[in-house]
Amino acid sequence: MTEDMETCLEVCLSKLTFFRAAGNNIASISPNILQNLPVDLLVFDLSFNPIECSCSHTEFISWIINHQSVLKDPQQMSCKPSSMNSRVIDFDSTHCVHNKRVITVVLIMAVMLLLFSVLVYKFQFNLRYCCILLRGYRTSRQDECSYDAFVIYSSKDEAWVRDELVERLEKGVPPIQLCLHERDFEAGKSITSNIVDEGIIGSRNVIVVVTQHFIDSSWCRFEFELAQSWLVLGRNTSIIIIILEDVEDKKIKRVFGLHKYLKKNTYLKWKRNALSNVRFWTRLRKAIISKK
């Protein structure tokens, strides 16, 4: 039905008693028009119109079914298009309600799944951490340690770790065996399991190389939080902090527990002069060897 026809109907409906609209290609009438039909209407002729029997027009079809007394030959009103020439008054709208419910349930489930995925992604490290605790590792496996120290660092600081830390410690006297993720983690094993098994449990100490890259790395923050948890759980493990470059306090606070740990514990700071570096390596070796 066109807008002009609807406007005309709204103006004239109040005085109508007979309304003949047969053969006018009417597929549906809006609920607005139906609500404003005069109470004194005696005949409403909608015959020979292609009434569309679909879930999008259930209000109009329900009106036809409930107002057969004013309709001319409602039994002859057929759904269009229909291969079976079915009658409008026989249209079953219950399946429409069912379809709406199914669509609503599917949409709700889709939204919930999307929300769940977002939460899992956002708190992925927290979930990994909970899974590790639930695995029930024993708190005392000191005899099984394969490394003297597990190094937590960003891959972007690998050059310093390789050229300075590994060279000075592993090739020094006595040699100190380090656990590095890119070299010592077991292939085919999940990163989380490697961090715990090879890194934290398999090492007597944990060395944390703090830089801006470390702060920005979610994996580095996760590893540090795990190391702190093992310390709280009674593991005889020392955490040795190396400040490789100055980082603002507000950025350090992004790593859970790091700012507090630096306030309460002595840490090492790398400086670019020979005398300071001699003391640096001496203190670092002493801290690691004391746990052998």
Characterization of the model:
This protein has 292 residues and is of the alpha/beta class. The protein folds into three domains: 3-91, Leucine-rich repeat, LRR (right-handed beta-alpha superhelix) (Alpha-Beta Horseshoe), CATH 3.80.10.10; 102-132; 138-289, Rossmann fold (3-Layer(aba) Sandwich). The relative contact order is 0.08. Mean pLDDT is 80; it is low at 138-142. α6 links the parallel β3 and β4 (178-179). The strands form two sheets. It has a five-stranded parallel beta sheet, sandwiched between helices. A two-stranded parallel sheet has the order 1-2. Helix content is 48%, strand content 10%. The protein is built from 13 helices and seven strands. It starts with a helix and ends with a helix. The chain has helices at residues 3-12, 31-35, 58-66, 94-122, 124-134, 158-170, 181-184, 191-201, 212-216, 218-232, 249-252, 258-264, 274-289, and strands spanning 18-20, 43-45, 147-152, 178-179, 203-210, 238-243, 268-269.
